[in-house]
Structures are given as structure tokens and as C-alpha cells.
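On clarity, I found the account of how folds are encoded harder to follow than it need be. Since the whole study asks how a given chain folds, the encoding of that fold should be made plain. For illustration, here is how one protein appears when written out as sequence plus C-alpha cells:

:::
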Amino acid sequence: MTTQEIRKKYLAYFEEKAHKSIPRALLVPNNDPTTLFTGSGMQPLIPYLLGEPHQEGSRLVNSQTCFRAQDIEDVGDNRHTTFFEMLGNWSLGDYFKKDQINWCFNFLVEEVGLNPENLYVTCFIGDKEAGIPRDDEAAEIWQSLFKSKGITADIVEIGSQSDGNARGINPGERIFFYDDGENWWSRAGGIAKTPIGDPCGPDSEVFYDFGDQNHAEGFGKAHPASDSGRFVEIGNNVFMQYKRTESGFELLPKPNVDFGAGLERIAQASIDSADMFRISLLWPIIEGLEHLSGKKYASHTNAMQVIADHLRAATFLAVDGVTPSNKEQGYVMRRLLRRAIRFAFELGIEQNFLDYIVPIITDLYHDDFPEVTESRDKVIDILIKEEKIFRQTLRKGVRELEKMAQNGVITGAQIFTLYDTYGFPSELSVEEAAMQGHETSKNWQKEFDEQMQIQRLRSQTATKGTFKGGLGGQTMQHKKYHTATHLMYQALRDVLGEHVIQRGSNITEERLRFDFSHPQKVTKEELARVESIVNEQIGKDLKVSWAEYPTAKATNELGALGQFGDRYGDTVKVYTMIADNEDKPFSFEICGGPHVEHTSVLFEEGKKFKILKEEASSAGIRRIKAALVI
């Protein structure tokens, strides 16, 4: 079964069980200042898991594209890629543990065809101090399912990951209890970190055993939650059955289920290969690299894995509107591309190669994500342009190396500078130095690693909290700026014309940021008119309400505005902002919220709407930053 077939089968399986298939969210979250990227299938649905009703009902399913920048350095083991798809199904106060675990097991074993002998599961060990019992219910359901296949499934307590590293597992043991470091879900982590008022609960993870030959002894003894490589997590059932209160934890009257499974990891298990890059969504890219380079994957595994992963991620980022730059998402995209180009040198690929590899990637998603096909030519142009720019930078780096080697010796610190500033891989710098007749210091690798560690510490400090994801924008201040964004969007169309289409936004408690299509700089006079219109509408105390409509009716018949690039299900939530004495709403826009109920609250504390800055974001796209100020 190909990876594409597994995706289709998963969606069909849960659609047969009354789940509504919902479209993927963009890789760049809309109006969530807590994260640069969509890093999990759960992330776009957190408002609904916290209680907001979803327009498609209480049973949902999808395949969500995800990107995790923090995994860039980990690409090359048997489980990590920066870009991946998360298969997910959700129950919003509907079914619970018994149905979910049964469906999970049945899909993996009966639909995908995984050997149940290779499946192991983990459950929550409980926390007496917090008053949360061991999750025997989940463990016993799993045990009965394994028994139905004639498999002994002993239930044992392990505790922490380090406990497992010391203990290992014994024959017949298949269901393992771990502590809240492994099997507890809240937005902030373990039990003690669970925010007051938040839903939370135990989870039950499913692991695939790729065999003892993939266990690395440096991690201690083998057990499911080990990082050694033998066991790989392929799915996680999150049971949100508690709510944290000031006095402890209480049961929710309507608990939720969130299931997430790595599509690529399930596909990896389905072919029983410890190498994820053998699956049908990655292997054609590897074959393309073999063809271009004339080298074999077996002897250049790491370089080809990095290139395949990074170019797949960069392609989807471009599909979702990201362009290479020196800021935020664009910076990460540029880093991916330049790492891929650097590793291509290791393969001897010195000619432009993205115009050969990127079409291979887009063809892999042709049938399942039409937006990839629609933007194919634009994506290729963006990536090739960046490749050309970087190859010019590489030439500058060669000249810089000549200047550094005036005493005939290149140090590890200088090699790191070439890596950090010009994108030179360390090996390329050493080879280039030798070609120029220079030596490298005896301890260059140690010196290089020391500088790399310093850089990583700086990066971790600079991005602390950036990639954690989660619920963003639920305070009153966020609601005010969400509402102001609607008003400004319509005001821009009134002043500049109907060609103005939203191309992105970002809301924090301090300001709003809004990207929109417009071919030239907005004049001071035009900005003043936009400001005036927004403040006038706020002063009218527009009533803010929402209703659900069939998507086609909302967009085609009623003319609701939306964001360019967003993909919607069969129904959408549309917000209306209208004055009591007027028949026509000032704003009528598709949005997920949240918003204030009356616009007059934006004027609290004597504040007015003020445009702070207008600038270019990219070709044909302008950016406005605005705030409510006194």
C-alpha cells in the first residue's frame, strides 16, 4: 500500500463512521502569534477542543500538513522529517475511549495491514498527588484487542523514560504505563504545568517495533518510549477528560478525543522498513537525486535524506505563500533551501538542480492537494531564484576563504564563519582550503563545534516559545484586534479598490499586522482615509454576530470576503458587522474568530485606531501594522 493510498483509506475509514472531512490548514497559522508554523494536526483545532462549536459537527477527520523547524538538525535518523502529514480524527464531546481505541487498532491492523505482533502501546500511570487514577480503562481495552488476535499483552508499570532505559521490557509485555512526561497531554506539558481552566488528560500512544537490530545501546535498554530507534511512535490517542481548577482536576461532562498519527511513519511501518525515506512520498525524490548525481543512496544516505526532506518542506511552504527572506517563516525557508544546496555539493551536483527535483515533489501530491498543482510554476520560480542567489553567495565565500588564509592556516572559528555567513559546509571549506594550498588547524573540528554550540544556544534563546504552538489570541485585546482587522480590510477595499485581497495577518496583544494585494505604496492620504473610516465604524458601535452558511452560498451568492489561499469545508462561519440603523453590513467576512460583540469597546480607555506603518511585504503585497492607541 502506498503512502497516498493510506491517506485516502484513513479519510474514507472515518468518513464511514460519520466523520466530516475538513481541509488542511495552511502551514503558516492565521492569527496565531505563538508559533511560526502549523506543527501538529491538533493545533488548528484547539479552539474547538476548548469548547467552541465546529461548523462541521462533533466528528472530524483530516490529513494536516505540518512543519517543525526545531527538527532540522535531526533529519537523518529513522523517524524525523521537518515536513510531514498528520492523520487526525476528533471527537468533540461525542465518542470516547472504547470507540477510539477500537477504531485505531482496526485501522492499523485490518485496513493498513500492520502485524499486531509489532505493535506496542503506552498509557498513563496516574498521579496520586493530583488525584488522577491510572488509566486502566484504556489499558484493558488494548489488552482485549491484542487477545482477539491471540497475542499475550501483559500490562506493566515503567514510570519515566529513564526508568525504561534502565529496566527494559520482558517477553509478553506489550502495554506500558508511563508518567506525565510521556503520557499526559496539556497545552503546557506535564500535570504541574497544566493551565488553570484548561482541558487536559491522559494519552495512549502506539509504537511499531522495527526490530532489535535498530536499537542503539547508548540509550540503555530497549522500551517503547526510548529514543534508540527500535520503537517508533506511529500514533497517539489523547483523551481530554479533565479540567484543571484552582483546587485540582475535575472530570469534564463531555470529554474530547484527539488522535494524531504520522502518515509517513505508518507508511514506513506498512513496508516494515526502518528507513522512512523508502516510502512512496520520499523515495522518488531520492531516485531523482541518484540520477542527477550518479551516486547511490546507500553511500550518500544522509546528504540525500536532508535534500529530500528540505526540498519537500520548502515546496509546501512556497505553496502556502512563504517566500525566502531574512525574517520569520521566510528565514526558515531560506535556511532549508541553502542547507539542501550545500548538501548537493557533497553529491557533486553543482548545476542548478531544483528545476529537476521540485517537479518530482509536486507530482507526488498532484492528485490529493490541488493547490500544489495550481501553484506549481510559481513555486518552481521562487525556489530556482533562491538557488541562483545562493550560488552567487557561495562564490563570494570562496573569495572570503582566500582572505582568511593569509597565514596559510584556516581555523575552526573561520570555518564556522564561512558556514554561518556564506552557507559553506565545513567539509567544503576544508576541501577548498586544500585546493588553495592552505592547511586547517589540527583542532578545527573541535573549534567549529564550539562555535556551533554557541550559535545553537543563541538560537534557542532567541526562539524560546516560538515553536510551541497552541491556542493564540483569546484575550479581550486579541478580540479587539481581530475585529479591527475586519474593519480595516473593508476600509482598504473602499479606499483602494476591490482588487485588495487579504494575503495574511498576525494578531498580538499589542498590534495587528495585515498583508494584502496592492501594486504600489499606499499614500499618506489613502492611509488617513482608511483610518478615518475604521474609527467612524467603531464609533457607530456596530453589532458583531456570526452565522454558518454553505461555502458556495457564502462566497458566490452572498459575497463574503475570505483570505487568499484559505481552503474551506462545506460550511463556513461568517461574521457580520452592522449598525442598528443600517440595512447593509459594513463587514461580511469568513473567519474563525474570536471577536468582540460591539465595536464601541475598541474605544475603551480613550483609544483610537491608528495605522503605524505601511511597507512592502513582497512583490505585489503590502503590509500594514496598526494599533489601538490613546
Observations:
- The chain has three domains: 3-277, 278-462, 476-629.
- Residues 462-472 have pLDDT under 50 and may be disordered.
